[in-house]
Amino acid sequence: MILKINGDINKYYVQTLCMVFFPGATFGENELPGEDVPEITVDLYRDSDNTNVTAYVSIKLNDKLCEATESVSLDEEINFATHEAIAVGRAVFAAGKELLGHTPPWGILTGVRPAKVANSILRSGKGILKAKKVLRDEYFLNPQKAALAVSVANAEWKMMKKTPRDTCSLYVSIPFCPSRCAYCSFVSYTTKRLLSMIDDYLEALLVDLDDTFNTIKRLGLRVTTVYIGGGTPTTLSAEQLDRLLTKINQNIDPSALLEFTLEAGRPDTITREKLVVAKNHGVTRVSVNPQTLNDDILKEIGRKHTVEDFFRAYDLACEIGFRDINVDLIAGLPGDDFKNFSETVDKIIDLAPSNITVHTFCVKKASDALRNNSSVYSLTGGDAAKSVAYSQLKTKFAGYKPYYMYRQKNTVGNLENVGFAIEGHEGLYNVYMMEEFQHIFAVGAGAVTKLVKFENGYNSDSQILRLFRPKYPYEYLAEENSEGINERREKNRSEIFKFFGIEE
Fold it and tell me: DSSP 3-state assignment of 453?
């Protein structure tokens, strides 16, 4: 894609707007005009009397050119971060809609957190009806998506008000998988040589955990949720899992946690022995993820398990007695259609797990699916849009409520990922991680600690401190085993204490 921007507007924001209409688009500096190469020009300026900001957008695709001009009064009461963003968003939306004859379901709402705007409106006291109206009229969401965003925001807001300020959560990264799914871009490792790193990785992780818990205690914080994710944490053996959970139990009382999650995920890694170890150490929530109940599609996407494996693992989790079981599904997978997906949804609802998470197929740049098939993106979403709508309707009728949601770039149909739960069984960490009203301490490769300083209640004025760990396991190990590791830890602690305004 060729993108030309004239005016003071964030380039990344404009790119995300363009990708609403052109999923999978790239923005190379040296891209040349040609067939099927979109050319987009954005001009942004203020009127001479400085009362209006105006955006002009033209989109050319082959021999078709569509243009749009949108002006916004600088004193207009709006909920956007800037007037410039409103004008550009509206102009891109109008030109893209005319060019392609497609109305994006999420309008011009960009970013990973679609409930954020609704959250800010609800917190201001304007109410649910006002929030829906703003999303429809200012962001151009269709009524169904506006209602979904407000419903999720309302659920999150209830959780926010119950979350004490002196609490935090812990994320533990296990970035290993028995095999790599075709759509995956997570920092996970699958070859025998790299899987052989697990013992050394675990040794370093246990030391990292002790250090992190010491910091948490010095800050006077109380851990409310623990989430062990990946990768696939049950790639660990039962003995390795026991060592990890024992270390966590040595630092906190698991019975005092609101939630203790083990993202088992892959049914082919789940055994009775591993689940018993988890239950004995206080784990209350596990994920058992089929993605689809179709063996042919599972094979196509590189999952090394069968539908039968899923039912075996799910029955084991039920038998051992975890309080909550989450099941992940993916709508819009290659080779899938509405008939198969709707049957999958029906069968999962019949199992009555406390949590069902419905993702929409999204291909990342590092995934095998993109390398093998560059045409995996879809503007309209095909059966994915119908499948997502079906999942939301069926879960509602079955007594589930949406409680958290996020979106990703280059998702089929520009659709969303939604977590549904039976009331009282929401996955708390999912909300804590997505929204910015609790501290998240994270250990392991690719982990990101996110600390929050509230300036004016739970709102967008909060300051965030993010601390990043090395992305890959071998980099993490190299750092943890380096001579400067104690100096690095001390530097991080100093930065954290300074952020909290605490003298060391």
Answer: strand
Taking 60 as the threshold, does the pLDDT of residue 79 lie above it? no
Residues 222-247 pLDDT 10s: 999 999 998 899 999 999 999 999 99
How far apart, in whole angstroms, are the C-alpha atoms of residue 442 and residue 186? 16
Q: Give the global pTM.
A: 0.91
Residue 96 near residue 59, CB atoms below 8 Å: yes
Output the furthest CA–CA distance in the chain (Å, rounded). Answer: 73
- State the Cα–Cα distance between residues 448 and 433, nearest whole angstrom: 10
Helix (H) or strand (E) holding 376: none
Provide the CATH number for the domain formed by 163-442 in this structure.
3.80.30.20
Q: Within 10 A of 51 (CB to CB), how many other CB atoms are there?
A: 11
Tell me the CA end-to-end span of the chain in Å, nearest whole number.
51
Q: How far apart are CA 426 and CA 140, in angstroms?
A: 29
- Three-state DSSP class for 116? helix
Q: Pairing between strand 64-73 and 52-61? A: antiparallel
The CATH class that applies to domain 1-102 reads alpha beta
Domain boundaries, the chain: 1-102, 112-154, 163-442, 451-499
CA distances from 391 to 328, 329, 428 (A): 12, 10, 21
Task: Kindly state the tokens that stand for 366.
Answer: 């590092």
CA distance 191 to 189: 6
Q: Label the pairing between strands 416-422 and 439-443.
A: unpaired
Distance CA 199, CA 201 (A): 5
